[in-house]
Design goal:
By secondary structure, the protein is α+β, with helices and mostly antiparallel strands. Helix content is 30%, strand content 25%. The protein contains 5 helices and 6 strands. The chain has a 6-stranded mixed sheet with strand order 2-5-4-3-1-6. The longest helix is centred in the middle third of the chain and has 17 residues.
């Protein structure tokens, strides 16, 4: 079935103070997956409602302590497990805030099926992915101008196709050497 992909931004770092954050980019790339946190939740959220997921967040992450954090966590997990689809496209970065002059763009991914992998030893909510690594510092203004986001410190963000293509075209123009061997169409398509 051919369907129009959805477009996302996903960050590879944990929440918290900058000096305390862990970055899972190497695991993303080496394992060819994209993933989100909440590894203490021992069940798969696939097929669950947001309210069911929220109950698990409260049970396993009561330390979050705030209603809005429970709600944000449940919505994010639900989007990743139940709204993302195979064939969706994602921009991978470490996230960015307004204080950063540069953003580290890690790559682009074509995502595939959802998996709950509790034995993974890191983030357990994962999607298989074909990742094209970029691994370059880009002026934050490029992200702001093309994606319309001044900050992106949440685990995932939804973006429009227009914004995704505007951003990827600019990255392709900045780093043409990184695109040799890539077929036409989406900048993340791979030669088979």
């Amino acid at each position: 079935m051919n369907r129009t992909p959805q477009y996302w931004i996903i960050k590879t770092t944990t929440s918290g103070n900058e000096d305390e954050r862990q970055d899972y980019w190497k695991k993303f790339y080496d394992e060819q997956v994209v993933a989100i946190g909440w590894p203490d939740i021992p069940v798969s959220p696939e097929g669950m409602s947001v309210s069911e997921i929220r109950e698990h967040v409260i049970k396993w992450y009561s330390c979050l302590g705030k209603e809005r954090r429970f709600n944000y966590s449940a919505r994010t997990i639900n989007k990743f497990a139940n709204v993302w689809r195979a064939g969706d496209l994602a921009i991978i970065s470490r996230g960015w805030n307004q204080d950063q002059p540069h953003v580290h763009l890690l790559g682009f991914a074509i995502v595939d099926d959802f998996h709950h992998r509790p034995q993974s030893g890191w983030w357990t909510f994962q999607r298989d992915a074909k990742i094209r690594g970029i691994d370059q510092d880009i002026e934050r203004e490029v992200f702001v101008r093309t994606l319309g986001l001044k900050t992106a410190m949440q685990a995932i963000h939804s973006i429009t196709a227009t914004k995704f293509h505007k951003f990827s075209a600019e990255i392709q123009a900045l780093f043409p050497q990184l695109w040799s061997g890539v077929t036409t169409g989406y900048p993340v398509r791979f030669r088979t």
